[in-house]
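Write out this protein's structure.
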Amino acid sequence: AKIEGWQRELGRAIGQAIQVGHLRPDTDIEDSVVGIYGVILVLHHDARLMRSPDALPRARRALGRFLRQYATVGAAPADAALARLARTDRRGVAPAASAIPDPSGA
């Protein structure tokens, strides 16, 4: 039930991003949920079970490709998310979302 709830909320968030213009209208919500969930599963498998040191950077690149594929031109939230995916600390961990300035200036 937890996984289905997580997928439902992810789909809702993707739908909201489409509605407000952050993602293109032709973004398929269900395909996007499956794709993102797949990246998370592979990340978990490779990082935890295989102890692959490049699991996190590969997952970030995959999520970045998704955002670049579906983001609308000039969508500040997508640009901020891509920038966040690119920044990491010495452990390969991205900063907390609260550490990223709001592009709207609010």
